[in-house]
Amino acid sequence: MVAYNIAPGTVGAYYPEANVLVPLDYLDKDSGTPSYKSVPVRITLRSKEIRML
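Given the sequence above, the corresponding structure tokens read:
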């Protein structure tokens, strides 16, 4: 995870690496297009160690 200056409560991801996070059948109910802009995300702390890049 890398911190960026984006709106609180949002996350960013790179594609195509993040494609595996969205099921193929996760479609918008109105348009039928892939729902990549509205995917629930949960981030959990696994270590208290912070590594600087």
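The chain is about 0% helix and 0% strand. Try to locate this feature in the token string yourself.
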